Amino acid sequence: MNSLSRTAREQRVAWISVIANLLLTAAKILVGWWAVSEALFADGLHSAADLFASAIALSVIGYANKPADEDHPYGHGKAEVVISGIIGIILVLVALYVIISAVLNIIHGPTRSPELIALWTALVSFALKWWLYRFSLQYAKKFHSKAIEAIAYDHKADIIASLAAALGIALAIVGALQNWPILFYADPLAGIVVSFLILHIAWQMLLEAFHILLEHTIDPEELKAFESIILSFPEVKRIDRIRARDHGHYILLDVRISVPYDLSVQQGHDLGRSIKQALMKQYDHIQEVLIHLNPYHADNHPDARLDERLKEYPKEVERESSPERRAEHHPEYLKARHGSKNAGERSTR
């Protein structure tokens, strides 16, 4: 799939999120304020943060999909990761604001329950956000987009938030109908629960962004899948090393393999190209594969024994250069060493 098609599809998902969040933000903030619902008003502020996050993601998608250039030889994919981190920070700030607001409401004591329209608004928000979450996550997994994945998990936070808000509002309404004022506290308490759920999701987003920026290794199971493809080539005798770097919606592979020592340069080049093509055909989120070939010798081959001797050579040099070994071969060295030691002891006295 070409970059233009990918960008257009990602922007489509982001635009749908922007429009949906715009409508939900206006509805929840206005209804929450009019219907006296702390939980719904807090959920509306969360949707406002979502709107801002979706707008940021929309603005960066085109940049993240730009091909590599001189200044960015590995591409621009990490721009999506930065946006994911920014969205996580926004969620943290919104959650803290809602917690403070709800705690103050509890301290002062709620005097009335929310109106019924607040409950219906929360339920509509729950249903719409569930659909948006499934829709966004499907595209994020298909195109390996961290920006769209961040939007999807943002919708997931909204699902939980709307459900908790609906529960708190419902309990407060029941309290009003049954004349149980204690249930009035359910609404601000729901706002606090919503905030902690949002904080949990924000923490997961920030942690993932942090790992990718520091080039944390990818899932070991995925690495094993790459290894099985590489080892399917009969010329590959073993994999000496395989590393992968996550760059947002794509990864870079660095592979060292051992091949028969008598393989020609042309044969080695063709083998590396075939392995690269097989990996990139099977996994469309692999952007680049760097393959280094090492000569492989059977254990009974003279060159293999030579390789083992060469590995031990630095240790032998270290042993032979020790003072004890030099003294064995050069007695005058031992005399000179003891002489300088005795002179040092006399000067100390």
Automatic annotation (TrEMBL):
Calcium in keyword set: no
Regions of compositional bias (Basic and acidic residues) in chain numbering: 307-335
Entry's Gene Ontology cellular component terms: membrane
MF annotations from Gene Ontology: monoatomic cation transmembrane transporter activity
Classification via InterPro entries: Cation_efflux, Cation_efflux_CTD, Cation_efflux_CTD_sf, Cation_efflux_TM, Cation_efflux_TMD_sf, CDF_Transporter
A matching Pfam family: Cation_efflux
Keywords: Membrane, Transmembrane, Transmembrane helix, Transport
Compartments it resides in: Membrane
Main subcellular location of this protein, as a coarse class: membrane
Residue ranges occupied by any Cation efflux protein transmembrane domain in the UniProt entry: 15-214
Transmembrane regions: 12-36, 81-104, 116-136, 157-176, 182-203
Protein name: Cobalt-zinc-cadmium resistance protein
